Amino acid sequence: MDLFRATCKEHNLKLTPQRIVIYTELLKSKNHPSADTLFKRVRKTFPDISFDTVNRTLLSFSKIGLATIVEGHSRTRRYDKNVDIHHHFKCLRCNSIIDFYDKAYDRLKIPDDLKKRFTVLNKRVVLEGICHKCRKNI
């Protein structure tokens, strides 16, 4: 929570009870929750909070480096509390997202033609397939 407080202060983001609860719920999650999942959890503490408040807060957290948005092919944004360099495996059956670490992927070279056209700010690899739990049920 010290990092949370310091980062919010650094970015002039007011420490409200709602933001603290949203961040706490994100930290407690064992997976990559959607804004809707966190909204349902936060409503237990703040019954009158709106989905829009939770969603905008999570987007703010991602902009200041307290969370990342896990890109996927679904319409639902999923959030990651782990801001360390890592990659994801997405199961195409159960939609679970699993973190993994790999130094070779961390060192992927940006193609020269992309470097000329774009400013790459980070690299993430997303592998898709069938997770070990779903594979057992095939």
Instruction: Give the spatial strand order of the biggest sheet.
Output: 4-3-5
- Counted beta strands: 5
Arithmetic mean pLDDT: 92
Main sheet properties:
3 strands, mixed
Q: Name the helix and strand elements from N-terminus to C-terminus, one letter apiece.
A: HHHHEEEEHHEH
Query: What is the CATH architecture descriptor of the largest domain?
Result: Orthogonal Bundle
CATH class of the largest domain: Mainly Alpha
Radius of gyration, CA atoms, in whole angstroms: 17 Å
Q: Kindly, what is the distance between the CA atoms of the first and last residues, rounded to a whole number of angstroms?
A: 42 Å
Query: CATH topology of the largest domain, which one?
Result: Arc Repressor Mutant, subunit A
> What's the domain count?
2
Taken as a percent bin, the fraction of beta residues is: 5-15%
Secondary structure class reads alpha+beta
What is the assigned CATH homologous superfamily of the largest domain?
Answer: Winged helix-like DNA-binding domain superfamily/Winged helix DNA-binding domain
Low-confidence stretches: none
